[in-house]
Structures are given as structure tokens and as C-alpha cells.
Amino acid sequence: MNSLPYQADHSPLAYSVGITLDRFIKLKQGDFPFASGELSQLLRDIALAAKIVNRETNRAGLANIGGAFGQTNSHGEEQQKLDVIANIRFIRALSKGGEVCAIVSEEEDAVIDLQNTSGKYVVAIDPLDGSSNIDVNISIGTIFSIYRRKSPVGQPIEQKDIMQPGHQQVAAGYVLYGSSTMLVYTTGNGVNGFTYENSLGEFFLSHPDIKAPLDGEIYSINEGLEHEWEPGIKSFIHTCKTQKLQSRYIGSLVADFHRNLLKGGIYLYPSTLKNPSGKLRLLYEANALAFIIEQAGGLASDGKRRILDIQANSLHQRTPLLIGSRNLVHEALINLNIKQVQIEW
């Protein structure tokens, strides 16, 4: 029987959809010889929950799951219905996978001890960031951090498993639910972005090896709080305007961060008179994004020190955040009289 060798069809009618997230994770599994596949499975569990939250987000207007839930979380913030739904979805996915021993969630007052003494990982997560924007159809997101537990496997979790500085993360990422849904993550070996293809139900690699521009033309800050800024922040924003940078502020952390990561820019949520310790949470917002931006070549600071060097001392600890393109963050720190001009991190 005669046969012809297979030749790939490169015609425009048979475009390539790229490599799936699952296959990419398998290819990169060798980066973690200590993980024996658990970290890879954990990332798959997060991706599965993200697909479900994406579905719920897309049908929110039709299923009456937009709007306020009628309760507040531990921070005194009004919970949205999708906050609660996303929290449930991610907790279920992380609980059933078997790799996680504890979860820290923005929507829960205390640590969720899964009583899984064989679990090797702790996950800190903001299940639905920017949820106040749901009703007006503005991009929202999920932010997550993954840490290896410090206590011996087989024993109950301890405080040291939870209160780890950001530089001890083994993986971090976010999911952006917008005009398209994207999952961006790092395991300490660069940053890669995956776009969700609804008809196939898969995330495909769309943004390999993301690098943040060293400079940018965008600054993102809530200028309505200008009267509460310290002088150094006011000086830096004045410099941005003088240099004709563009002001772009969505009010959804993931969306603002994602745009600046790709296009170059800086996001600032500094300390204010009302929130002298800042407003963003260290364990499940700032640490994750700081890990990502550093892997992409940028910087993240609280205005005094590297975000990833901060030792957490409380579950929902807040922090100021200056994050984005390296040169812009550097200039902001100079305006705040940070003398370490030669930033080593």
C-alpha cells in the first residue's frame, strides 16, 4: 500500500490554535523535580475553577447573579454575589485536588484548614478582584499565590506555613475576565499568558515569555485621592503629567496591571490619610503581582522596600503598592526620597 508522508497544512484556512495550558504545564514540569507533578495539577485545578468563574461572569446579567450579596467581608467591603460564587468555586477546586493543605481567601476571615496533612501547598487567593465593576461590565479578575508549606508533611499546618514573605512563592498568577479571558502565571521561570478559547474549552498559549517594557507612557492611580497623598507621590504624578504620560485608571487591579504589564506603565495605590498602611492586601494581591512583574523585568515596592521582602504578620495585612515598568517605579521611589537609586532586586 502506497502512502505519503504527513505534511502540516500551513494554509490560512487551517490556522494554528497553539499549545494548550495543560500541555505547556506538562512540558515545564521538569522545572520542578521536587514537585512530583503536584504543582502542575494544582495549576490545572486553578485553571478549571477559572473556566467555571468565566462562565458565571459571562452569564451574570442573565442569571441574576450580579449586584450585592447583602453581606460584608472581613474588610467591611460589601460582597457581590459573584464574590461569593467565585470564592466557592475556587475553594471547591483546591479542596478536591488534594495538593493543598490550607487556603487564604479575601472572602474568609480565617485560614481555611483543609485538614489535608499530606498537602504540600498553601494557596492565597483573591477569588474576584474588582467585583464592584461587575454590574457595569468592566474587566475583573482572580489573583493567586502558591507557597510550599514549611511544616513537615503529615502534620497539622502551622503559622509559618501561612505567613511567608513573597519571595518564597513557588508560583503566582491572575485570571483576567474581559473581552477575552486570560490566565497569566509564573513559576519563577518567566511569565506566560494563555487566552481562553470558549468553543474548545481550553486555554492556549498566546503571550509567551512576557517582558514588561522598561519605560511606559501610562500611569494608573485614583486621582480623586490626591488630597490624601504624601508629597513624594504628588511630585511624581506632577512629573508624569509634565512628561505627558497618559492617565489610565480602570479601578480593577488586575485590568490596570495587565495593561501596564503589556504596554508599559506604573500602577500606584499609595498610603493615604484614610489608609496609612495602604489598601491592597499583601498575601493574595501584592505578592502575586510583584512576583509576576519581577519575572517580567519590572519592579514592585511599597514605597520603602521591595514587596517580596515584606514579612507578613497578619492574614489580611494591607500594603501600599507601586508596581510596573522598572524605570517608572525607580523614578517614583526617587520622588519618595528612597536613596537606593541602584535598585538591586
UniProtKB/TrEMBL annotation:
Tell me how the cofactor is bound: Binds 2 magnesium ions per subunit.
Please state every residue range assigned to the domain named Fructose-1-6-bisphosphatase class 1 C-terminal.
215-332
Protein name per UniProt = Fructose-1,6-bisphosphatase class 1
**What Gene Ontology biological process does one annotation of this record name?**
fructose 6-phosphate metabolic process
Keyword Secreted attached: no
Q: What is its EC number?
A: 3.1.3.11
Name the family: Belongs to the FBPase class 1 family.
Pfam families, alphabetically?
A: FBPase (PF00316), FBPase_C (PF18913)
Species of provenance:
Algoriphagus sanaruensis
Example GO CC term: the record gives: cytosol
Q: In which pathway does it act?
A: Carbohydrate biosynthesis
Cofactor(s) needed by this chain: Mg(2+)
Instruction: Identify the residues that bind Mg(2+) 1.
Output: 106, 126, 128
- Which amino acid positions bind substrate, per UniProt? 129-132, 222, 249, 267-269, 279
Reaction catalyzed: beta-D-fructose 1,6-bisphosphate + H2O = beta-D-fructose 6-phosphate + phosphate
Matching entries from InterPro entries are given as: FBPase_C_dom, FBPase_class-1, FBPase_N, FBPtase
Its keywords, alphabetically, are: Carbohydrate metabolism, Cytoplasm, Hydrolase, Magnesium, Metal-binding
State if Cell wall biogenesis/degradation is listed as a keyword.
no
Indicate the quaternary assembly: Homotetramer.
Q: Which residues form the Fructose-1-6-bisphosphatase class I N-terminal domain?
A: 19-208
Task: Please state where this protein is localized.
Answer: Cytoplasm
The EC category is hydrolase
- At the top level, the lineage of the source is Bacteria
